[in-house]
Amino acid sequence: MNVALKRVHERESTLSDVVSKYPDVPRLIILKIDVQRRGVHYTRRALDGLDPAVHQLRSAIWCSRDGIYTDTNVPESLLLRDGTSIVVESVSTDKEPYLVDLVDGRPALIDGDEVIEFVEFWEKPRYYDLVTSSGIPMKDVISARPQRLSILLSTVCHFGKNSCLYCEIHNNNKTKGRPVRPKLRMEDVSEVVREALREEGRFCTFCITGGSILKGQEVFDREVDLYIELLQAIGEHFGSRKFPSQLVASAYSEKQLRRLYDTTGLMSYTCDLEVLDPEKFRWICPGKAEAVGGYEVWKQRVIRAVDIFGRGNVSSGIVGGVELATPYGFTTEEEALEATLAEAESLARHGVPAFFVVWVPRPNSPFRDQKSPSLDYYVRLTRGLERIKAAYGITTDFDDYRRCGNHPDTDLSRIR
Fold it and tell me: What pTM did the predictor assign?
């Protein structure tokens, strides 16, 4: 069987086939992966069951997987019965997604004629109905996942035309009709944090991220300055020196990391290598490769962050599956898995776990016509990354199923 036919064959494996093949991986985790790969389409009946007074609706800041900026008439996302989030978007039916329909009055995932699983729509936090003193809707300042507050510092990335090939942020910045997000004001952030924390027990952490900012005497200095300002605005509402928080950002120098740690309440740091291979990194992430001297420099900066934030508080994210992109990616899933897991273990030896998100080719990205790998591949990647973390005694407490919900391997960690 040649490579092309092998990939087609693997993609055609059914959910039940893969669930039967991997009895050590919970069915709901495998289902989550498949739903993320394929997307969902909401029937009219499902949307009629959506209650805007209760449920969280999707933001229009980013476009959908069909390349369309959404209005706010679809759910933000879905929740499985084990408390696991599925961070997924609506797509058109010609892409063969799972359908979300009402069955006996309850939302359910449908594949063909089969009811696969009942799900729930995310419930919105109370602050989503409020506006700040400056008149900005609070939901546009800080967004929410079921148990997390998420703050996007900036929708602009300075890599520009050298942005990562799977990413659409550069083209999004130029797309007509894109909703304009107001510039983030620290006064608004502080006000929303205060209001969100009034909902006691709802949120367990903050996740802060944004596009890379290259300005400064040293590359990323300006980016660090802005994150310090943002973290200090959050920290005003905590009496402790540190508060539950994760920063997903660029590869900072030790000096920059020390400033972040010493001057804010930040507890954990994530620097995404995106693809765990030097050559693939240089091709897929050209801006990152040029910014600080290539893959090995990014890798070493992540590793050195452990000395500052501590073991178990530093990680690197990858876009799982993008390593198989054509024409320069790995040519077989077996080769890609072996190389990715070997490099993930190299990071784990230094106390840095690698987490992955399911790669979905984005409509405004250079990789828009690519194909994601098979469900089988993603389940093997999930098992492999979790086994590495377990072997090296690395926890995922700051990026687990409650605090993120977008990493199948950290979902698996909860049953370790």
Answer: 0.92
**Residue 28 burial (CB count, 10 A):** 17
Q: Which of 77, 74, 97, 98 is nearest to 86 (CA)?
A: 77
Burial class (CB in 10 A: 0-12, 13-18, 19+), 43: middle
Query: pLDDT tens, 172-217?
Result: 555 445 555 668 999 999 999 999 999 999 999 999 999 999 999 9
Query: What are the tens digits of pLDDT across the range 84-108?
Result: 899 998 888 777 899 999 999 999 9
> What's 332's DSSP letter?
S
User: Is the domain defined by 126-413 classed in CATH 3.30.1330.10?
Assistant: no
How far CA 74 is from CA of 21, 175, 347, 365, 412, in Å, comes to 34, 22, 39, 23, 28
Burial of 133 (0-12, 13-18, 19+ CB in 10 A): exposed
The boundaries of every CATH 3.20.20.70 domain in the chain are 126-413
| 403/385 Cα distance (integer angstroms) | 18
